[in-house]
Amino acid sequence: MKTFSIGGVHPCDSKISAGAAIENFPIPEVAYISMSQHLGAPAEPVVAAGDKVKTGQLIAKANGFISAPVHSSVSGTVKSIEMVKDLAGNLCKAVIIDVEGDEWMEGIDRSEDIVREIKLDQKEIIARIAECGIVGLGGATFPTNVKLSPPPGKKAEFLIINGAECEPYLTSDYRVMIEMPEQVLIGAAIMMKALGVTKGFVGIEENKPEAIRVLSGYSEKYPDIQIVPLKKKYPQGGEKQLIDAVVGRQVPSMGLPIDTGAVVQNVGTALAVYEAVQKNKPLFEGILTVTGECCPQQRNFKHRVGTPISKIIEAVGGVPEEAVKVISGGPMMGKAMCNIDAPTLKGSSSVLFLTEKQTKRKEEGNCIRCAKCVSVCPMGLEPYLLNKLGRAGRMDDLEANRVYDCIECGCCSFTCPAYIPLLDMIRLAKGQVMRIMRSRPKN
Could you give the CA distance from residue 380 to residue 357 in angstroms, rounded to a whole number? Predict the structure, then answer.
């Protein structure tokens, strides 16, 4: 069975919410819709306090090439446009809407009928995706229309749909694959047409046999799309690792996936593209997993963007008594929330509750030169060395040893027998080095 060729670890996958079918979460009474829901410049509001808006209506335009428009996830009256705190406690601009019913914009197809014929041409597809505010839902939230428009001199050869969902606990992609498989494949076909390629792959890890079975059955209708079972290994959902696993090509240092001829998109993104192109539906809903061993209810919710996370937590009985951390994302790459009143975003993937036993760090010891961190690094780096160089502030040596290639997966910290927080230091050092590199004059 295929997998990537360098490093990786095997954490317990803990997919305890895999059996929880997707449920519609109630529409909130007040929606807090952030203007910073994508990589790049925040969107610019085009509504004002007192305006009436409908579900799916444009409320903020893209503000630059790397940006995406934002649409209302509810109908009602714009209460205000002000700064609100995000999950990390940072202030960001948001459109706050008092909800009144649920009146959708005309032109959005709300039927459950599957639309298979792709009528739009290549340029129309990319334009529709841009207009609907579609972004990558695998974590980075990069504007999808930009990713489907390779720069001059670069040409896509194939599309890879990321169904690995290698991060422990998360099951939203799994539920999408088994509940909406044909929509995912049509979304993939749409993106293949936009890219001008005739070959597509869907990579799915072996711990999701039902998803492999269901998608393989539907893929008979889409012979240009191959379902590729993958060995379970973290971080196989990383773009570079997935390309290596599926087609055996390696992205060069400081390179991009398109350098290998690949464009990688997430399962959730494929669904969003289907809904945008075939249903004219902007991206204002998402699928979010609520999970954790101490969580009494395992759920996968379809939520309206801008729903306060505290409302979602209330729906499962509140923060469990044993929980000491609430994580946005998974345990390997997710971030601890310091503000559970923050609203959901387009890219929100989970609310994960962890106990003290699961999160308490053991006392840091001395490096025993075992090189386990080297053997598991999926980027072929030397984490122990980067940690030492970072602590010593040796920026030139950090750059020479490719700290910028770190994907911050946490494999090094996960495997270190001395419990050295390698990723913490490497992440800080990488940020400093990247700032230095960006400050240099361009030739």
Answer: 31
**Model confidence at 371: pLDDT above 90:** yes
pLDDT at 139 over 90: no
Identify the pLDDT of residue 75: 98
pLDDT at 275 over 90: yes
Structure tokens at 135: 């972004």
Q: Which residues fall within 8 angstroms of residue 244, CB to CB, at 6 or more apart?
A: 4, 5, 6, 250, 251
**Rounded Cα–Cα distance for residues 226 and 164 (Å):** 14
190 backbone φψ class: left, alpha, beta (φ>0; ψ -120 to 50): alpha
Q: What share of the chain is helix, strand, coil (3-state, %, to 5)?
A: 30, 20, 50
Asked whether 116 and 122 are in contact (CB, 8 A), the reply is: no
Whether 442 shows a pLDDT value over 90: the answer reads: no
pLDDT, tens digit, 9 for 90 and up, residues 380-399: 999 999 999 999 999 999 99
Cα gap 32→305, rounded to integer Å: 8
Tokens of 223: 């012979």
- At 200-240, the pLDDT tens digits run 999 999 999 999 999 999 999 999 999 999 999 999 999 99
Whole-number pLDDT of residue 133: 97
pTM here is 0.96
**CATH 3.40.50.11540 fits domain 122-279:** yes
List of residues 6+ apart from 119 with CB closer than 8 A = none
Delimit the CATH 3.40.50.11540 region(s) of the chain: 122-279
User: Cβ of 165: how many Cβ atoms within 10 Å?
Assistant: 32
Kindly state the tokens that stand for 323.
Answer: 């929980």
Rounded-to-integer distance, Cα 300 and Cα 151, Å = 37
Collapsing DSSP states into helix, strand and coil, what is residue 80?
A: strand
Residue 167, CB half-sphere, CA atoms under 13 Å: how many?
A: 26
Contacts 24+ apart (CB under 8 A), 391-396: 391/425, 395/429, 395/432, 395/433, 395/436
Quick check: 237 and 252 in contact, CB under 8 A? no
Q: Is the separation of the CB atoms in 185 and 267 below 8 Å?
A: no
What one-letter code names the amino acid at 139? G
Asked if the peptide bond before residue 235 counts as cis, ω within 30 degrees of 0, the response is yes
Rg of the chain over CA atoms, in angstroms?
22
Tens of pLDDT, residues 151-210: 999 999 999 999 999 999 999 999 999 999 999 999 999 999 999 999 999 999 999 999
Copy the structure tokens of residue 113: 């009928």
